[in-house]
Amino acid sequence: MRVSKIFCTFARKLQKSAFFSPLSFATAKVLLFFEMSKFIAKIIDFFYHPFEKWVPKQLFRYASCGGGNMVLDWVLYFLIYNFVIGHDLVYFTVFSQQICLTPHIATLCIVFPITLLTGFWLQKYVTFTASELNGWRQLGRYILIVALNLAINYFGLKLCVEVWGWYPTPSKMAITLVTVAVSYLGQKYYTFAKI
Asked: What ranges do the domains of the chain cover?
C-alpha cells in the first residue's frame, strides 16, 4: 500500500512537470530517485525516535544506510561466491597475459562496483544531504575513500583467508567492521563536507 502511494505521487509529479515528454526519461529517473531517497529517509527517521537522546540523526542515518549497504554486500558476496564463482579459480586474459584470481578476490571484484554505487547514492541523498559540493566532486572523493576501504578489504581477505585459514564470508564480515569507522570519518569530513 505504501509503495503504491509513493509511485502514484511520483506519477503525479511527473505529469505536472514542465519537462515531461516521451524523451524525458532522465527527468523521470531523477524524480524517482528523489522520491525513493525521501521514502528511505522517512523509514529511517521513524526508527530513530527511540535513539534521538543518544545518537545524532545524521549518525543514525549513516549507520542505517551503511548497515543496509553492508548487508547487501554480504548477501551478494555469499551468493556470488557460492553460486556464481563456485569456489573455482577465475582466469581471464588482459593484453595477452593470463591472470588468475582466487574465488574470494574475484567475488570481491564483482560485488565492489555494485555496493560502491548503492552506498554513494544512499549517503548523498539520505545521510549527508546538506553538502553543497558538486556531485561529481563528491563521487570522486567517495571513490577515494572507498579505494582505501578496498585496499583494507583486499589485504584483509588475503591475510584472513590465505594466511590464517578463515572462511571467506566471516573474514569479509570482520574486515567490514574495520572499514566502517574509516568510511564514516572520511565521508563526513571529506566527501560530503559542508563548504
From this structure: 1-53, 55-191
